[in-house]
Amino acid sequence: MAKKQQPSQEYSAAQIDVLEGLEPVRVRPGMYIGSTGTEGLHHLVWEIVNNSIDEAMGGYCDAIVVDLLPDNRVRVEDNGRGIPVDMHPKTGVSTLETIMTKLHAGGKFGKGGYQVSGGLHGVGISVVNALSTDTKVTVWKDGYEYTQSFSIGFPQGALKKVGKTNHPNGTEVTFKPDETIFSETRFNREKIYTYLRSQAYLTKGTKIEINDLRDEKDTIDYTFFFDSGVVSYLGYLFHGEEPRHPTPFYCNYEKDNILVEVAFQYSRNLQSTELSFVNNIITPGGGTHVTGFRTALTRVLNDYAKKKGILKEKDENLTGDDVREGLVTVISIKLKAPLSPQFEGQTKEKLGTVEARSVVDQIFGEQLADYLDKNPSDAKAIIENSLLAAKARRAAKAARDTVIRKGALEGMTLPGKLADCSSRRPEESELFIVEGDSAGGSAKQGRNRAFQAILPLKGKILNVEKARLDRMLASKEIKSLVIALGTSIGETFDINRLRYHKIIIMTDADVDGAHIMTLILTLFFRYFKELIENGNVFIAKPPLYRLSRGREFQYVYSDEQKQELVAKWEAANPQTKINIQRYKGLGEMDADQLWDTTMDPSTRVMKSVTIDEAEKADRIFDILMGEEVLPRRKFIQSRARSVQNLDI
Ligand code: 1YM
Prior knowledge:
By secondary structure, this protein is an alpha+beta fold. It has 4 domains: about 25-225, Heat Shock Protein 90 (2-Layer Sandwich), CATH 3.30.565; about 230-385, Ribosomal Protein S5, domain 2; about 405-540 and about 610, Rossmann fold (3-Layer(aba) Sandwich), CATH 3.40.50.670; about 545-580, no CATH class. Helix content is about 40%, strand content about 20%. The chain contains 22 helices and 24 strands. The strands form 5 sheets. Strands 1, 2, 3, 4, 5, 6, 7, 8 and 9 form a 9-stranded mixed beta sheet that branches. Bound molecules: ligand 1YM. Ligand 1YM binds near residues 83, 95, 112, 113 and 173.
């Protein structure tokens, strides 16, 4: 079996011998830049910019300017050391000419330090030269200006020493892509902004300016400069959303030729965002650096929680999934020669360099422990976040173990309390989950039995359960619901077996109603998320008041509506007395009223449940289930109000 190439060693020994001309690039451009479409076209810009970024990573350059010029030209300038212009001993021409005209597979010829190279097509400046009809390089170095021009890879004359200059050291490359090679030669400003923005985050302290000068009348410029590097990146990823805790974690340390820069902060969401880079190349498939990060995160948070007594010795450790819930992180490492990024996997999107794993683990681990000690309130929020995730995970597992022990749901008949509809077509069928038996009774009488099914749930049962979700799932009530839905739960969940495409939760607009609503939403969020995402779950909205004057009456669904109507009626006819009936619960309505106000598809008001909402319910589930009564009561009361104010 072929051994994986280790370019770092072989490269330095063989690099000069494998230089070859640029013909292959023009014959098979796709092999070098991926495609000759718009992606390949932009690749030319990345290649040149990457040279400048390499200089910046080495600490030699802090300003890069990219100009989009008329006629599809691009100019890139940096204030680095300037490409070497001295005679190259192996080729007999200048180093500049050598790197412009010789192809070197894989790496960047003759360079040390950090390199952006090594990505999918880290092919270097010569490839850009080969695929451009006009390329001009200007170098300012130690008081002199040098220049050389090229066309489709060939020098148009020797390197010229233009003369003395006061210009600071630097390099400028202008190129015009060959229209006979590219199917598309117009550069896309947005694409270039996006790339340069992310490069600016990853190369902190470097100013990257971009000027779109293609239209004289409408020039546009942008400057990216992020002094706090990947911490600024976090800000961008949060786009204004409030994080779970105030202080972002940040570290930036080097060890054994690997620079490790990590920033993270927890969000209030469940999803996590994990961006990782090696030498400024994004690694969507993660790899050794990400593994090192994850291992250290899990270990250090567990150690901390144990040390602080939040986790007891006998407690189960937090898992990787627990500690990554809601985590937003940017992991950027830079490998210095002789190390170089080794990419793995089908699409070369995963870092394989083994050294990265232990270095990231160690550096990040130490810095994280330090951060937790110095920021105790952030630490507390982070651990709480993970504990909550752990709780949800354990509840899910317990549910699988109890409710869905193999076959436990199978063969079970539909629950007796379910008043099913006669239709067997899920598309038209609706399931009303109704709180309490009396409301259930009215709903059963009032419904259209052709397509509406009613399942009364006893709120009381759920309340006394003081349910951990796993026990709640073991309850007869919830089992009935799962069976009625038809989808099963956990690993055997199958949305295609859903028996009703509309599941409508109908509870009173009072404290108990809010409570049971939270329980049911939490249940759906944790075990039937797909149904929410699919738009199957609704909240019924019964009216709050029935207003009447004489024979005329109208239902209203909010206090504002009530006031408006009263004002309207009073203005129209001051004599007749207005009668206001407040509905305290669904049970107060007779069957016809319930149908008219809440169940009739042609007149009813319903709210489609969003993931956001269900997630909120999930978060507060713990408050509701906690031991202390007072915060719970307060909470439910405020929640009950907001339930009345649902916007519809
Ligand atoms: C607008 C493009 O190419 N800048 C640039 C390139 C080089 C250097 C500086 C450089 C690198 C080194 C030493 C080194 C390159 N040099 C080489 C090679 N901007 C742009 N700025 N001195 C200068 O890495 O040792 C390749 S690129 F190989 F000649 F050293």
